[in-house]
Amino acid sequence: xxxxxxxxxxxxxxxxxxxxxxxxxxxxxxxxxxxxxxxxxxxxxxxxxxxxxxxxxxxxxxxxxxxxxxxxxxxxxxxxxxxxxxxxxxxxxxxxxxxxxxxxxxxxxxxxxxxxxxxxxxxxxxxxxxxxxxxxxxxxxxxxxxxxxxxxxxxxxxxxxxxxxxxxxxxxxxxxxxxxxxxxxxxxxxxxxxxxxxxxxxxxxxxxxxxxxxxxxxxxxxxxxxxxxxxxxxxxxxxxxxxxxxxxxxxxxxxxxxxxxxxxxx
Length: 266
Prior knowledge:
Elements: H1 7-18, H2 26-76, E1 110-115, E2 124-129, E3 142-144, E4 155-160, E5 181-185, E6 189-202, E7 223-231, E8 238-251
Parallel strand pairs: 2-3, 4-7
Antiparallel strand pairs: 1-2, 1-5, 3-4, 5-6, 6-8, 7-8
Keywords: Hydrolase, Membrane, Transmembrane, Transmembrane helix
Organism: Microbacterium dauci
Protein name: Class E sortase
């Protein structure tokens, strides 16, 4: 027996079948096009930043290697003969306990190379004087805060770098482990610091740059190192700050220190 359909139900189905689809309007088409363009633009920017970071980081690694090799060649060159005979007494020999310290460098001058073995053998970035964006940080370099200590000097040697874009030198800063080596190479040799702690602060908390970090009106009696960068990544709401203490200095004549090859041991 065939089931009968009530007349009102059949009419309802026919009405639904005949109902026209909404017609596309000019504004709806424009809206969809804008949404598509926005997605494509976001994908392009993300790709551009990611690829750009790889390219800039690679350039910085190559420049750092070239600078280190240049310093090696200069150190291997024989010293020029003295033009005048030395006096009978001669100069006092350099005290081995003295740590050579560079003088303050002019803005933009590249004077060192930072290496952190925790981040891999290829992690190496030139250090330039100053923290301005256009000519230092945006070039993929680590910037040295003016008026803070130089490497190996009593006080607080403070540095800044990007965590994204421009090679993102400090991208992995939050991966540091207590005891990790932070090594700064200069023409004189290598200064090894050891990571101790990190924290997140507001961008106005400049006390982290004091001679003794976060200690006002306290005279420095040790050698500190401070790294700063944006946190979280992709914005500038706060700063991540990493602190380290000086361990030793290795003259260039002695070759690279074991802190560069010992892995991450404290």
